[in-house]
Every structure is written in structure tokens, then in C-alpha cells.
Structures
1.
Amino acid sequence: MALSPMDSPRSVPGPAKTLAAKTKALAVQNAASSPLSSGASTPTEGTMDLAEQMNDQTRKQFVTGARLGEGTYAIVYAGHYRHDPTRLVAIKKIKVNADYKDGVAMDAIREIKYLQELSHPNIIKLHAVFSTKDQNLSLVLEHLPLGDLEQLWKNKDVRYGGADIKAWACMLARAVWFCHKNFVLHRDIKGNNLLIAADGNVKLADFGLARSFADPFRPMTYNVITRFYRPPELLYGARYYGGAVDVWSMGVVFAELALREFFLPSETDIQQLSVICDVFGTPTEETWPGVSKLEFYTPPSNPSSRPQPLQFWRARFGILGDDGIELLRAMLTMDPKRRLTAQQVLEHRYWTNAPRPTEKEDLPKNGGGAKVMGEDLKRRGGEIESGRADKVARKLFG
Amino acid sequence: MRYTEDEVYRASSQFRLWSFTAEQLAAQRAETNKAAVERVKAAVHRQRAQRQKESVTGSESERNGSGVDNQAVNGVQKEVEYLTVAEEQKIVNHLAETLIKLGEHFRFPVEVVATGIQFLKRFYLYNSPMTYEPQLISRSSIFLANKTENHHLTAEKYAAGFPKTTAEQILAPEYLIIQALRFTFDVRHPFRGLKGGHMEMMAMAQGQGIAPEAHGRTAAEMQAEMLYLPVRVGGAQNRMTPEELASRITTAYTKASSILKHAAILTDAYFLYTPSQIWLSAHLIADEPLTAFYLSTKFPSPPTSSPQYNKLLTTLTFCKKLLLSHHSLSPSNSSASSEDEMKAKEAEQAAGIGALIKKLRHCRDPDKIDLVKLNKAVKRDAVQDGQLEEQKAKRRKMEREGFKKEADSFWGPELPKKE
């Protein structure tokens, strides 16, 4: 059929033949009838270039199992290594976005770019990447079956104390420190991007909004980080920033672990700022030099909010102890220049003071299971679980 | 625990997947070339056999057709001349240079151009220009580099910058490139290192340098020593004013920076050396006594007694040699050769490339010529193989749910299950 004169390669010149099925048919025909083709190797091997062969080898190392979740951005499957079914993985298959006219999605590029570089016990491991025949990229990620930190504090069946919070927060702080040490800004730190491994380790995931530190005077977008976790400078439109933005988010996660509810929830960006100012006071040039030069800054109306006193913190965050409260407030300093760096966070005495952080194998566990991991991994950065309108408007670049 | 820059670099994909010895690099290129030649050969044979068969079928169907046609087809069968590794490299390097000009034209930041060129060079480590048209690949590489380096540019706007080029053509080879890059996008450049070194030298010149404590040199001592650096290695001491020293450091920086933007990205330096080795070598070319002094402040005095220092210097010398081998740094280029001579040389080079491109035209893989169609075909096949089924399944599920809803509205919904 493939060789009927109507369908012959002469009438459809050149590459149309490379439709895989057709090529195969041709090759088979040739092998049967023409001595010339005996020089060619097997048809599929022959049409694959070196890079395709390498990709194929990678793909064959894994077995894809049940679908765990599907989002707008990706589908997540359970999977395992072919040679060892006990070595579990999660396979995140990036969907092709028909609305995005510029090729492979930026989220996928960012996530792959940074996970390829970052190898740390508290950062989700990227085992491999391969592409499938339909040109979808698949990320083979670490299997993290025990849910995430947000579910943990939401789950009323799980009881935990100050030593447990210290252990979780410390693992988060290490992950953030490691990113910054590698000049990577995560830009979407939040409870449901912090997944929990079978051994109790906390792993920072979702690098779809990450980028390298910019060179001085190169502007970046302020439209990053899920709103509840977004620091005031970004809400004011800062375009030059560094690791401090992640430290703020880390502070909010730390606070949520202690409170077991959202610490700074809001409905809009404007409201987010007022929620922050209610707790920390409205910033002025005295408390935060340079703040008035930020694009969306408006001077405080009368009466302006004043920062909450120490009693407020003691009443709500007593579980952290005085040194924990001190660390929390230092992470949540309005002025990003005076906010602790990730390094300074790790050097704080809270970690070494009593109580000792719980050993990770003794930490209270969630019954989340693989299903939750699927839900967490399928999301695109900046999305909140409900997936309603409170997505950050995602700039594709910057 | 200490976490050193060495450890950071050793974990990078650039080190893990894209660093080679000169021998490994040559061997890989030879293997790629060999594989490509075999593929093209096989494809050409297949095509010829196909044509032969067609003409046979054709003559059978139309009895009056003569066999002359058939013979003519056979008569064209000349043995194809394939590109050698060296010729492939010439073509790729030529396109890399074109990318620098392209970057200037589009005003791309330097790291976009540098990354794009490394993508191109990495791509052609595992692919041959005989398989994939290098100009298309080079244009797409730099588009991809814009994305990975956070520089906003739409495919449409970019494509509009070329004659008769569509966004589709720019995007068609993207997956091929990503696959050949082995899914790594991070390229570590020497630019920031050079800037940092420059700032450090400026601080030393102002008496604010910091040397490792064990080395026993104070900031003032370093400054004093620096003010007497000879112009040339082994030259006489030469007392400079602080202003002269500062301007010398800046001149060295400017020259080194230009080397990094040309020779460093156009040679194999990124495959063979680390970013710090590359910027130090470029600086060594720019001002040897100054760079030697800078290096000496990092080791206990005298530095020559440290095996590490000697090892480093050997590596830097090799890297320097590689950079100097690039024509942008060849003496005939910079010395006062007449403009005519330069032009003649350029014309000669252009003619050489022209001949290679002509040669390439005759040995291209016929299966891989139209990447846009190829790209579409791959996607279409996939849809036929699996996705269609998925869509069907989805539609059926929706229909089922629709029936259920209708049933519910008639019979009332199912009773809630008991907990």
C-alpha cells in the first residue's frame, strides 16, 4: 500500500516519508526486495541519532505505573526502576501548553535547569529526564509518599510539639541555604511545596519559578511567590532583590507550623500588604530606608499600623520558645536588608538550644500517601490547592 | 561543614556531563562523525532503491515507458563525499561566530550569546551538521538560550528578525536540541569570576586587600608590592602611581573581558577547563605580571614551593595556549597588518566556509532536511499511537457521566453511602 504510485515518495517528496510508521514499512519492503538495503542496520536503530538513543536508554530504565494526579501543567504517575521494582519514583509528565506560543514551557525549563544542578538531602531529587515520542518531557522525581508540611499542620489527627517544628524548620532552612549557596532563588516556598519522604526528611520541591541571582542592576519580576508567602518588598514592586525573598516565605511557613493555621491569609495583593502591616507596622523611611522609592509604595494613612508587641508573639507562638520567636521575627523583618540571610538563619542559637530537634525517623507522620504527592507535583508554581483565581499572575520571564 | 566552590562546581551538570579531556572530546567527535556518515549512507541507499523500485513499478504500469529514465537515475549515482571531523568543526565554529554578530544585532545580553554558543557546540558533540542543518540549529539554540537565561523574547518577534523565517521554524528543532543537551540547561560562565577578581585587585591596589592569614602578607604590603609590578614578566621594576595602577588593572580587565566574549566561547575552552581557569588564563594574556601577583597572594610565600600553585600554573598555561590559538587573538590580527590584508584574509576564510557548505549540501541526511515537517510528523504519530485513545476515553467518560446525571435527575441521586 505504501508503495502504490499515488502514495509514492516521489509525489510527496522528502521528509514526509519520515512518518515513523511509513519509514518502517518502507524499510521492511526494502529489506525484503532490495539487496541494497542490507547495508542498513535495523530500521528503528538506523533512524535514531545518538541523542535519541541516549534518551531511549534513559526512558527504558523506568516503568510508568498508575496515574496519581493531573493538573493544568503536568500529569504525575507512579513509577519504578525497571531493574529494581522496589526503587520507587514519581514521573511528572509536562503537558504541552497550546496557549504558549514559544515552545517548551518556561516552568519546565526552569524546573529541569535547577534540579539538574542541586543535589541535597532536603531538595527533591531529579533521577532523570526523558522525552517521549509525543515530545512531552518527563521528569523522574524522587518518590515522596508522606504528604507535605501544609497537610501536616492541617491534619488534626497528627499531634506534634516544639521539637518536631524545629526539626522540620531546620530541614527547610538547610534547603534554602543550599539553594542560595548555589545562587538559586526558589521564589515559591510554601507548605505544600515541602514534601515529606518515607524516612521523614523534608524536601523542597517545585522549582518552576526559580531563577539564578541576577547581576547587579538587572531587573527581575516582582510577580512571584504565592501571595500568602510573598514578602512586602515584592508587593511594593521591588525589581532588585536577593535571597531575602525566600527567607520571608520560610518565616511564614515556620509560623504556620507553630500556629497550625495560615499566618497571613488574604484575598488580594493589596489586602496582603495590609495584613502584613497589621502585624509588622506600616513601613516608613525610618523603619525601612528606601521603601518610599518602591513603585507601589504609598505613605501610611492616618492612623498607621504599629508593630505588634512581644506579647502578641508570645501568645501565639509560645510553642517556639523565646529564641524561636526571636528567630521568627528576624526572618520576618520588613526591611529585606535587615532580614536574616539563609546563612544567618542556620547560625541562630534556636537550633542548638533545648529542646533538641526530633530525629527525623521519630517525627509524627501524615497518612498522605502517593495520591497527595501526585497532587503536589502536578501543580504549577504559584497555584494554591483550590486552583481558583488566586494564582499568581505568572510572568513567563524575569 | 564547609561547602567549597569546588564542591559546587563538581556537582554541576557542566562538570558532570560536559567536561572532557582533549582526547575524550576528539574521540566523541570522531564517533559522532562516523555514525552520521553511516546514517546518511544508509538513507541515500534507501532512497535510491526506492526510486529504482518506483521507476520499475512505473514502467510496468505504463508499458510504453522506456527504460532510459531508469538508467538515468542509476547514472546519477555517484559516491557521496562526506565531511570530516575537522570540516564539521569549521562549520560549527563559523556559525558560532555568526551567533556573536546575531547577538549584537538583537542586543542580547552576553550570557545569552555565550550560552547559545555552548548549546550549539554541545549539540554538535553528539550530532553532525550532515544530519541537522547547522544554521537552523544555531538560531534555535540561541532562542532557547534566551529562555534559559531569563531574557524575554517571543519566537514570533525573533523569527521576524530573519528573512523568510517563521516562529515554527525556530521552534521545530527545540526538542532535538534539548535532547542533545541531555536535558541540562545550566552553563557556567567565567564572566562573574572575572568581575570578582577585578574588584579584588582594585581593593588590593587601594590597600584593602585580604590575603589568607597563613600567608603573612598585610594589605599594605600587598599594595606596596603591586605598585612596583614590572610591565613584562622578568622586566624591570616600575614604580606606578596609584592612579596608574588602577588604570592598568582596568585595562587588563577590559582586555580579559573581550577575550572571554570571543576566544573563550568560540574555542573548546568550556569543554576542557573550569570557569575560574578560563578567566584567569584570559587575565594572564591581558597582563601576566599582574595576574601572577594576584595568584601569588592565594598561596603561602614563595608560591613556587606549593605543588598546587605549580599545577594550577601548568593548567592555566595550557588554557592560555588554547585561547591564543583562536584567530581573534592571532598576532597577525592585532599587529599593524594593513586593512587590505585583513580583508583578503576574511575573504579567504569566507570562501573556505562557502566551499564547505557546498560540500555539506551533497552529503546531508535526506531524512532530516525539513525539521518543521519532521516535528509535526512526530507529534502526529504520537497522537495516532496513544493520545487519541486517551481523548476517546475521556469523551466516553464524559458521556457516561452525562447519562448518569440524566438518570439521576429522573430517578433521584443515589442514596449516600453509610460511613
2.
Amino acid sequence: MAVVSFEGLHKSYGRRIAVSDVSFDVADREVVGLLGPNGSGKTTILRIVTGYLRASAGTVRVAGRDVHDGAAARRHIGYVPEDSPLYAHMRVGEYLAFAGRLRGLAGRDLDRRVAAASERLALGPVRETIIGRLSRGYRQRVSLAQAVLHEPRLLVLDEPTNGLDPRQIIEFRGLVRDLARDCAVLLTSHILGEIERIADRVVILLNGRLLGTHPIARAGRALQLRLRGPADAAPRIAAVLAATDGVTRLGEDGTGWRVAAADSAAAERLGVGLAAAGLAVVEVAETPSDLEEVFLRLTGGEAAR
Amino acid sequence: MRALAALAGKEARTLFVSPIAYAVIAVFLLLSGYTFVVTLAVGKQATLVHIFFQAAVQLVLLVPLITMRQFAEERRTGTLELLLTAPVGEAAIVLAKFAACMAVLLVMIGLTFAYAVVLAALGDPDWGPVYTGYLGLAMLGAALVAVGLAVSALTGNQIVAAVVSLGLFGLLWGIDPLAALLPHPADDWLIGLSLLARFTPFAVGAFYTSDFGFFLTVTLLGLFLAMRALARR
């Protein structure tokens, strides 16, 4: 069942149309990414689903409730706006308790949920730290913690990896995948590679219009491997390749062999076979994403209109 | 109700954690204390009328400093988006900020009650004007805070909020002289809008329900406008 459903969503500011006739659903425990260039309507859609903006037309339902029917739908939403705004003068624990009370939590239930969110997002060491003194990565974690305190059905993240360093981005991906075990996640990004690594499905937007949706085949993605070994090992490599299921030999060049593995399991079997034969995989690269091709095709066609 | 209490607590802590509340209260008490000592030493009368008028003028000048950041700062930093997307209504957000600002004001005004205690120790003050004077200051303060919050809710810039509030309060404070230029009954209407004309009876010991109703109406109107400003998005 869909946690969120958008039907004919339209938003305009005077004559300027920000979002036009957008319809799609987000299923429970699904991570959906809104992908599009700046100004494509991503943030507007998130602000409508969280109740910050009112739609000009169309309906948005969260857990079956219209987002414009007061607080009922908002109880099911956790939201991290762009740049993770927080009260810089508050301590982490104090802020999380405030965020919980704002959502009607109190007493032991509040304490339990604050403790659970702090543990899940590894905030224990900074519970008494003033938020203004935290690193960008910790601030992002505090924002996520306040968003999941009340165990929402939907987690909404606007450009969540903005400003994070590579290590923080990798940690963040893991956190989102972990949080997505309990709720649906709707997030935005204008970085194709980022959204592809986090989302199960991508909704592509341009100029406020939905151009298409694209599932990300997380499992079963083909991998391209490059093998290199001593020249006299060629027969042994050929034998391992022939003996490994799900592996296709693409060709040879001056530095080694190019091989396609049907999925990560096949690549692992190949690695085990090569190691057993005394050979090493010197380079492993994923095949270029088909999302990139889909995005360029959809947005290119739209831009040409 | 629980959310309203959480919001009001957060707002009060925010005001009392920042140096703004302490600076405003300190300046207010310094100037009030100076006036109290001078008028008592020179006039030798057990009255607080001078203090009330001066305090009212100080409220006109200082309230914008308290209200200017309430919404403008939250809008600038983005935390307003968090509040408005939480399962609480605009009314709770506005009332919490109003309550916190009033707490600062009431602490500030309440501390001047020490002057009344001094007068009671040295002489025999007429307590009627003392009580109405404090009621008048509280009513005036509430009206100014509510209007200041409405102005702050309309802008994302603290300085703009402060300047517009100050201009509005200054205009309403002394608008009654303009009445001399207007025909009847427009002159009465204009005098009716004057904060000074409405506050004066309170300060001198008279209580009119019309003046009480005026400040109450301005307060409610200001709060309503602040809520509408937040809802308009």
C-alpha cells in the first residue's frame, strides 16, 4: 500500500508554474528519489507533502490523509529540510526532547524514543553538546534523529547530502538505508550518482513536470571487471572464466582481460576462482549506470521542445 | 496543549539564554531607576505616575528589539519550516512566542514594583493609580508585542521588522495631535487610536473599559495577523 500518493499535483506562484500535473506513489519502506536540476520543482513537492506549502491543485495523501487536513497527516511525517536547520543554542538532548514534545510525546515514552533515536544515529557522545558546535555530519544526524523520533511512516529529506564530505556521505547512505527498514523515504538530489546509490526508484523532474520514473536495479546489476595477470597465466585465466557461472568474457587488450559478471555474486565466484588459481583481480568497475542514459534521454527530449 | 507548552518553554529559554532580554531589562531598569530617584528627590511625592509614562515610552522603544527576531530569525535560519511542518497549528506557534515575550516584559515591569515598595516605606502612596498603572503597562505591552510579532512574521529580516515596528509604534503613540487638523468625528476616531491617549487614564489612576477593550482588541488583532502571516505560504 502506498504511504504517499500524489494525484495531479499543481503549484504556481502567480504566473510562474513550479509544479505541474505530478502524480506518483511511494510504497511502504521504499526509497524514492526526486531527481532534477535546480528549479525543477523538487523542493516544492517536498514542501507540499510536509504541509509547509499548499498545493494550487491536486491532492497529496500521507497514510491515507490529505496533507491539508490539519496536523493528522503531519504526525506521520519526519522532515529534514535543506541545510538541516536547527536551533544552534540548544544542546542535542534538549533539542530532541523539544522535537518530541512538539509531536505530543511525553514522560517515559519521550525519554525512550529520544534514547532510541540517539543510539540509532550514534549521537550518544554529543547528547550534551551545543548544536552550534557540532560538525556538519553530526548536525545532519541530529536532524535525522528529530525526524524519526516519533517513528513516522514517511521520512522526507531535502538535498540531504549537501555540504557533507565524502566520508559523511557514505555514512549517510548507510543511515538512510537503515532508516528505510521502518518507513518510506522521499528525498531529493540534483546529483545523479548520489540518488542512484540511495534510492530504489527515481522520479525525474524538469521544469516542474514529471518526465518519468525509473527503478534502480540494486540487485542483479551487471559489473564489468578488468583482470590482469602474467602472460603465461592466460590458459589458467581462460579456464577459470569458462568454469565460472554468470561470467562473460568481453575481450582482451594489452593489459589484460575485460569480463562482464551478471551480478555481484558472479563477481565474487570469479574472485574466489581466480584466487584459487593464484591470480588477482586488479581492477573492478561497475558498468556505467542506465539511469544516466534515461535521465539524459528524458531531459534532452524535454529541453528540445 | 502539550505542544504549546513545549513551544512556550523553548521560546522563553531562547529569550533568556540570549543577552537581548538581559540587555533590554537592564537598560529599562537603569532609566526607570534614574527617573524614580530624581522625581522622588525633587518632587518628594509618593507617586509613580512619572515612572509609568516613562516606562510606556520605553516599551514603545524596546519591544521592537524583543519581537524583531521572533519570526524573522526563524525564517532566516530555516527553523520556521520545521515548526510549521510539525503537527502544531500556527496559533500555538504565535501564542508561544507571545507568551515568552510577555514573560520578559512582565519580569521587566514587575521589577519596578520595588519603587512602589520604597514609596510605601517612605510615605503613604495612593495604591489605586499604582495598580491601574501596572495594568496599563501590561496591556500596552501586550498590544505592542502582538503587533511586533505580526510585523516579524511578515518579514525575513530582523532589522526591517524592528524599524517597521518602531515606526508603527511611534506613529500610534503620538498620533493625537494630528486630530486637530481633522473635522469631527474623524478627530475622535484618530484620538481613539492614540496609544498615549489610551494609556494616560491607566497611568493617572482611571480605568475605562473602552481603553481596556482597545488594548485587548489591538492585541488580538496583532496575534490574528501574525497567524495569518504564517498561514500565507
